[in-house]
Amino acid sequence: MKILFMGIRDDERPALDRWMQEHPQHDVEATTEILSADTVGMVDGFDALTVQQVIPPEPEVYAALQAAGIRQISSRTAGTDMYDIALAQKHGIVITNVPVYSPNAIAEFALTSALYLTRRFAQIEQKLQHRDFRFGGLLGRELATLRVAVLGTGSIGLQTARLFAALGATVVGYDPYPNDAFTEVGQYAPSLEEALDGADVLTLHMPLMPATHHVIDQAALARLAPGAIVVNSGRGGLLDTQALLAALDSGHLSGAALDTYENEAQFYRYDWSDRDLGDPVLEQLLDREDVLMTPHVAFYTETAVENLVVGGLENAELAARTGTAPSVVSPA
Ligand code: NAI
């Protein structure tokens, strides 16, 4: 089978090379071009397509793919918001994704971010930069003494709960669809509010949707224990950033670690080093010593990239050959 691998990044090449060696029966060609009305002609002569879009393909792309005999688009991502699933279906094209590629990558990152705050690494670094070797302001807290609220106990939240529990934390969870495996490491609270009550660490792992937009607002933050920290490696919109800043300013919260930010789309993955951000809230978050900002990289490990590349290629091959795959995305 001839597979076109679009939108390749340098970090994907080793995994692609390994897959090609293990599957000599398939012929894969890679390009850095992403799928668009200008590039869709590249699919001529190919049987299958895997892509990773940073912008959505234009509507006419689906008809062009159909005309070229392509029956699938295999996205090397978990999210599928780049695609018009209904339009794709109208043109006989199935969209597949890689829904679970390494929950552990995000779980490890959430744990590391929490430890960065509880062991006061920012303050340590700041003092050492000034050659101040005194202990003042560096008193840490141990996870085994803390109550950790995990909101959303799906693939990532469950693994995060396991890692915190392994270090002795008391883990409390909330999920409208409870998961038996979670009860081996933590206890479910009957409501989201009760999970927050008195928590020292809050970590967010539910999807962003209208019902969860700003679910962590001023009232939710007020339920946390004094001195609590908030870790958001879920989606920026889950958290009301202004309410977070107010809770940090009042001293109710001692820190926050944000891998996602409400208005991140125009910034993350781009080089803004020579431009004014024009976003005073992001500027403030970046400048604060009590906030650890990271640019949506919690997922970004060698293991995750390998799983996305392999998953993307296998879905492409399977869906092109059979017309379906286990991870076909349905219209909303
Ligand atoms: P999942 O679908 O396995 O788990 C999500 C869980 O949230 C489900 O169990 C669901 O029942 C639960 N949930 C839904 N509404 C809820 C609510 N109101 N309160 C509490 N729980 C609720 O998804 P997975 O793979 O664990 O991913 C979770 C989220 O993590 C994704 O939706 C995505 O936004 C984020 N993510 C972040 C990444 C990063 O690099 N920072 C990478 C990948 C995912």
TrEMBL record:
Listed GO MF terms: D-lactate dehydrogenase (NAD+) activity; NAD binding
Any matching Pfam family: 2-Hacid_dh
EC category: oxidoreductase
Signal peptide segment: none
EC number(s) stated in the UniProt entry for this protein: 1.1.1.28
Domain D-isomer specific 2-hydroxyacid dehydrogenase catalytic intervals: 9-329
Keyword Zinc: no
InterPro entries given in the database record: D-isomer_2_OHA_DH_cat_dom, D-isomer_DH_CS, D-isomer_DH_CS1, D-isomer_DH_NAD-bd, D-LDH-like, NAD(P)-bd_dom_sf
Stated family: Belongs to the D-isomer specific 2-hydroxyacid dehydrogenase family.
Name listed for the protein in its UniProt record: D-lactate dehydrogenase
